[in-house]
Design a protein that fits this description.
The structure is a homodimer of 502-residue chains.
Chain A lengths: L11 H20 L3 H15 L2 E10 L4 E4 L9 E4 L3 H9 L3 E3 L11 H6 L6 E7 L5 E10 L7 H43 L8 H15 L15 H12 L10 H4 L7 H33 L4 H30 L6 H10 L3 E3 L5 E3 L3 H7 L8 H20 L9 H6 L19 H16 L11 H13 L5 H9 L2 H6 L5
Antiparallel strand pairs in A: 1-2, 1-6, 2-3, 4-5, 5-6, 7-8
Helix pairs in contact in A: 1-2, 1-5, 2-5, 6-7, 6-15, 9-10, 15-16
InterPro entries (chains A, B): GAF (IPR003018), GAF-like_dom_sf (IPR029016), HD/PDEase_dom (IPR003607), HD_GYP_dom (IPR037522)
Protein name (chains A, B): GAF domain-containing protein
Chain lengths: 502, 502
């Protein structure tokens, strides 16, 4: 702490100016929440205020009883020192200023850094940084007062004052970093948890985020074309990243069986269909047996062998027909593209009936089964497709509930449009006005859906084929042609996913 | 901005002391991230530094072009002023200091506040607060210089310097508040999204959080007993809140059909069972028909009427038996407590067979059906119970992935133990050492599960009955008896949920 009353001296006005400048520095520091920028700022100002050659700053890690330094001017790696060791460690431990006028004459000085770096240390001023509770949170060390002088009491006072302000700014920056990491970690972990419901899409959202941000960054290098002026700030990239990471969050509102549907009928639907065919089979046997009895009544017992022969043949044929129909339905059930003839036959088969266990005539194939088996592409019925597509609405509703900061306020809107198409054929709103961020995300989303590992209803597609498919969609006016060109030219998949073109 | 060089003056050392004290204040302000504490601190220091009677502070809301004040000394409500209006509004608009030596002689002064409050304003100093980019972010206004003096240039300079530091601290506090709100909002929204998968538990997590935090706060008032010394800080309450809010997050890893299982067999399992009974029914008809034919062969056509009579009677009996078995199984399928006799009969029924559509002998009741229908309580098989219980492990794994801040680092551990019992009969670890936070959460979790709206497998229980059930569990050494006493005495449900004892 500085004394509240300072005696008048001829240097008073110089000190006043310096304290005033520390106030300006304090303000600049408190506005800088990025530690990687804050620490160099502190060192720059510290070097200036005590007129030294260079400064370094150590932050105290109380849990590990270590000092660490993210930035030491002229050094790039993180340094860690045990608390109490060396001059910085001692200052951190005792909280007392160390001012050394001649390093090589002082036993506390360790010349090994000089030896390894080729630097020559003459004078050292090392002061503690204290938080608002007076606890030491780190140290600032200034080396080599300019003009061959030694550090004086005024330097001590000024460096202490600067350090006190720096301590608060560092604490704020660390806290800011901590909360951001917490938020980011929570978002990522919940995306992973939700994706785990559909194992075939695991990791999709993270990859789409990497691809989309990478594509946005690639716009930086465009000097021509419609995106020559489009640039994203760091916080806009963050906004885009959250929108991409969370674009499928609404899938939590889609039932699992729909999400992972592998065939046109669900397993239990196929089981019910198959049980009905067994019942029909048994019914054919029963009808045949009843006919035999009735024939015997008419034609007499002596006709029994020929009745059996006739009925065995007829039953054999009927059962073979039933088996053939079942085989046909099993073929229709696969997620392949349905031939036109099959569709008509399914409608025809809808007229088949059998007699159930209570002797009621029943359709062999139910309308909803015909509808499901008639799906012309993929495995989803129109209702199921709508349910899957509803994930975009769920995502939007979810994201809209969240009190995004001003800088991130467009996250819901960007995610909302990721299935829209430029020709207005997308969903859920079918609007052609799509934010550029969503247009980028669309390309990356489709690319990853195509190339990611096999899904229950389709095989993974190789990189070049995926690009061909995207190219076709861009050509037909659904995807943004210029963004797709950048996606290809900047080799976004290789850059973002380390995916080798295959 | 202050000039970098200040001319020497007789007041120099006093100004130096004041600037030094502003540095100390700057440090204290930067450490205060709670806006409700920061604003009074700024006002206190501002009042002191310019030796005024009182100060007020307005923050600029650029979007709404308004100034707002959370604290005006002597006033409790939030005040909002249009930008440009009044003295504060003008300073915010122009960025220029306004220093009024005689308020009532100045046209800009609005005496309505004086009139309504009975206060008498003489002198006014109003200065802008600027952020690190020089943008005005608010104003500080000092009223009535002490000793009947007027505010001078030095006051302007000092209040500007203080305001500059205050601007940074306020910005940090607002940002801190913003990110916390974002995190909190994201957590709440994802809990809601995950709970929506099981509509019968909607809102459960939020209520458990409210109950548990309320119970923790109630410990404050205990002067005796084992919890007389237990107190939770604000950040510990926050930790407890997150743990409670997220205790069931792992349910995202449990399949929906298990989560919402209403009977012992799933609908599709019951459908398959029922289809098998229809097949068996048809088979009985077929066997009967075949026997008729065989009897005719032996006894001759003339015996046919009596054969039909005998067989109709036999078939009728067989079908009635089959129907009775099916009726029994439907009874077993309900989520009621199973009588001992039923269990033995189910095992017996496992021996029944029928001939399937391909003339193979098949069991009428499958082992997994017998197992499910034999569930003695509720609707879940042991495997399903384990799957439901696994939500605690999922929750723990999920929470452990998140980089909690140091202050919140016990969230995973607290949530992990919410199904443990003090007698070691809980899950997943079956350990009797349970953090007090988890012990509180257990009581609140069970209370809400009992009293919340009907679930598919059980009816909601009234408040007093729920307390009786909890009391029994406390008495048997599963729940913490003392915490339960506080839960009852402090009327936690009424306090936290506005639930009236019924």
């Amino acid at each position: 702490m500085l004394p509240q009353s300072v005696p008048a001296s001829p240097n008073l006005s110089r000190r006043l100016a310096k304290l005033t400048s520390i106030l300006d520095v304090a303000k600049a520091m408190s506005a800088e929440r990025d530690l990687d920028l804050l620490l160099p700022l502190i060192l720059y100002e510290a070097t200036k205020v005590v007129e030294s050659d260079r400064c370094s700053l150590f932050i105290l890690d109380r849990e590990r009883e270590e000092l660490w330094s993210k930035v030491a001017q002229g050094s790039k790696n993180e340094i860690r020192l045990p608390m109490g060791s060396g001059i910085a460690g001692q200052v951190a431990h005792t909280g007392a200023v160390i001012n050394i006028p001649d390093a090589y004459a002082d036993a506390r000085f360790n010349s090994s850094f000089d030896i390894s770096s080729g630097y020559r240390t003459h004078t050292i001023l090392c002061v503690p940084m204290r938080d608002a509770n007076g606890e030491v949170t780190g140290v600032i060390q200034a080396l080599n007062k300019r003009g061959g002088q030694v550090f004086d009491e005024e330097d001590e006072e000024l460096l202490l004052a600067l350090g006190a302000q720096a301590a608060g700014a560092i604490e704020n920056a660390l806290l800011h970093e901590e909360i951001n990491r917490l938020f980011e970690g929570f978002v990522s972990a919940s995306v992973v948890a939700i994706e785990a419901r559909d194992p075939s899409t695991a990791g999709h959202s993270g990859r789409v985020a990497d691809l989309t941000v990478s594509l946005a960054q690639a716009l930086e290098h465009r000097a021509t074309g419609p995106y020559a002026q489009t640039r994203f700030t760091a916080v806009e990239l963050q906004e885009l990243r959250y929108a991409s990471l969370l674009h499928d969050f609404g899938k939590v509102g889609v039932r699992e069986n729909v999400l992972v549907k592998a065939e046109k009928l669900y397993p239990h639907e196929l089981e019910a269909l198959s049980a009905r065919f067994q019942l029909a089979r048994k019914d054919l046997q029963l009808q045949s047996s009843r006919r035999r009895l009735a024939s015997v009544e008419v034609r007499g017992l002596s006709a029994l062998p020929s009745i059996h022969q006739e009925e065995d043949a007829r039953l054999g044929q009927e059962l073979a027909q039933l088996d053939e129909v079942m085989g046909f339905l099993l073929t229709c059930n696969k997620p392949t593209v349905l031939a036109q003839g099959n569709f008509e036959r399914l409608l025809e088969l809808g007229k088949l009936t059998f007699t159930d266990a209570h002797d009621h005539g029943k359709p062999l194939l139910l309308p909803h089964e015909i509808q499901s088996l008639s799906i012309t592409r993929g495995t989803l019925s129109p209702e199921e497709r709508r349910e899957i597509e509803s994930h975009v609405d769920h995502t939007y509703r979810f994201l809209s509930q969240i009190p995004w900061t001003r800088a991130l306020r467009r996250v819901p809107e960007i995610a909302y449009a990721h299935h829209e198409k430029l020709d207005g054929t997308g969903y859920p709103r079918a609007v052609p006005e799509i934010p550029v961020q969503s247009r980028m995300m669309s390309i990356c989303d489709i690319y990853d859906a195509l190339t990611a590992s096999d899904r229950p209803y389709k095989k993974a597609v190789p990189h070049t084929l995926a690009l061909d498919i995207l190219k076709k969609e861009a050509g037909s006016g659904q995807l943004d042609k210029d963004l797709f060109t950048i996606f290809v030219e900047a080799e976004i998949p290789r850059r973002a996913l380390k995916k080798s073109p295959a």
